Amino acid sequence: MAKLLDPELSGSETAKLGSACRDWGFFQLTNHGVDEAVVQQVKDSAAQFFSLPLESKNTVAVRPGGFQGFGHHFNAPASDKLDWAECLLLATQPVHARNMEFWPANPPTFRHVIDRYSVETTSLAMRLLGFMATDLGISQETLQSAFSNKGQTMAMHHYPPCRRPERVLGMTPHTDGFGLTFLLHVDGTPGLQVKRGRRWFPVRPLPGGLVVNVGDVMEVLSNGAYGSVEHRVVPHAEKGRTTVVVFMDASVDGMVAPIPELLLKGGETPRYEAVERVEFSKKHLKALAQGQGKQILDTKP
């Protein structure tokens, strides 16, 4: 981020950013500018929450038919591997979308810390989107407005160690049904793997960095210029792994569709059918539940 913000280095670093979004759909962002004290507090809060007895964590358990709260991931019914992850999922932005019943009161600082981290990551996303817009050849305001006030969700995951990792699944291969994802490693335990071609590549977290990836919605907004890539989590045999993930949502006038300015400037034909944001979410969740991996919008013929 420091190079992106440096006038002399911004051009070459923006090109690297664009290349990562096109070729991998993933990158690690260092010197991101998120308050270091807030980052440490978030890490501490996540670690403390998952260390609580199950009875305490279940006070904010997911309710039938809901998605916010504490629970376990769902894997495809046909999966022969055991689910090996705990998750706390919360709607964090806009503020009126929050349901504080599912925000843990223990540890005592949890709610305040999550609120601050939510604001910090929103600001970071807007800064980063400005450079992505430059790479795509559209105005910063156009791309930023697609994300502004569109919603943010936070997920904390804990993957216990497993001495038979081949028999369990941390998280099934999938893509993210949002715009952008920011992943913070609470510890240095690896486990995230990214698919390129037919190979899975392990992500080794950089100290002080955030892992950022392009979601399905961003792929559509960019008319396929940026790619949403399948990824999975493989449990570690000896070490637990805890992460804090922020999903930034996006849409254009309530639709998931290529950005009109991008099509006009490049003289491009839309590669994806426009779909209402709510319908898009339903398709993504259905595909995730069925273990279908990447499920992007219907493409134009």
From TrEMBL:
PROSITE patterns, sorted: FE2OG_OXY
This protein's UniProt keywords: Iron, Metal-binding, Oxidoreductase
Record Gene3D superfamilies: B-lactam Antibiotic, Isopenicillin N Synthase, Chain
GO molecular function: metal ion binding; oxidoreductase activity
Keyword Secreted: no
Residue intervals of the Fe2OG dioxygenase domain: 150-250
InterPro entries: DIOX_N (IPR026992), IPNS-like_FE2OG_OXY (IPR044861), IPNS-like_sf (IPR027443), Oxoglu/Fe-dep_dioxygenase_dom (IPR005123), Plant_2OG-oxidoreductases (IPR050295)
Entry annotated with the keyword Iron: yes
Pfam families assigned to the protein according to its UniProt record, in alphabetical order: 2OG-FeII_Oxy (PF03171), DIOX_N (PF14226)
Xref: PANTHER family: OXOGLUTARATE/IRON-DEPENDENT DIOXYGENASE
Similarity annotation: Belongs to the iron/ascorbate-dependent oxidoreductase family.
Name this protein carries in UniProt: Fe2OG dioxygenase domain-containing protein
Organism, as annotated: Digitaria exilis
